[in-house]
Design a protein that fits this description.
Elements: H1 6-17, E1 24-27, H2 33-43, E2 49-53, H3 57-66, E3 70-72, H4 81-88, E4 93-96, H5 99-102, E5 111-114, H6 119-130, H7 133-147, H8 152-169
Parallel strand pairs: 1-2, 3-4, 4-5
Helix pairs in contact: 1-2, 1-6, 4-7
């Protein structure tokens, strides 16, 4: 419920009304699955939305690699780890412009940030990516480079440098 999966579902419905060929795969489980399935039926987009349920890490990476775009519309996140996982697979993200997600998406470079709850804005950014393969490829390459900044080796090196500097200061 807190991930607000209803927003990309509504964006898909809007895009379908605009004759845009789009498909959404919803990965994960939760107590809100039944209402989301009802929403899909109510909007008449059952042929455009697949509920994958629980997915293994391998399947998740496969989905990221196949996708043109990853979507995360949470109003708040501590950190957008799935955005970074998608980025590492070369997949741009369209996400809600919320504090934790701002750190994992560089707006206009590795994906897009949209005002939370703004379905037309979300649909517009998705449409831009659907209709411009070169944009997807550029953002995907930028996303992959961005993700490489977040390795364990780099984190260890930066932590060590910080601790050495702190020790020198005292």
């Amino acid at each position: 419920r807190y991930k607000r999966v209803d927003l990309p579902i509504r964006a898909v419905a809007l895009l379908r009304r605009q004759a845009v060929d789009v498909r959404l795969i919803v990965a994960g489980t939760g107590d809100h699955a039944a209402p989301l399935r009802e929403l899909v039926a109510e909007l008449g987009i059952g042929d455009a939305v697949e509920f994958a349920g629980f997915v293994s890490e391998d399947r998740k990476l496969e989905l990221f690699r196949r996708a043109w775009v990853h979507v995360l519309t949470s109003p708040k996140e501590g950190w957008g780890i799935t955005n970074l996982e998608a980025a590492a697979c070369g997949t741009p993200t369209v996400a809600s412009d919320s504090p934790g997600l701002r750190d994992s998406v560089v707006d206009g470079e590795t994906g897009f940030l949209v005002p939370h709850g703004d379905v037309p804005a979300l649909a517009g950014r998705l449409r831009a990516l659907i209709e411009d393969r070169a944009l997807v490829e550029r953002m995907g390459a930028d996303a992959r480079r961005f993700a490489l900044r977040f390795t364990w080796d780099r984190a260890a090196s930066e932590t060590e440098a910080f601790l050495r500097e702190a020790a020198r200061a005292h």
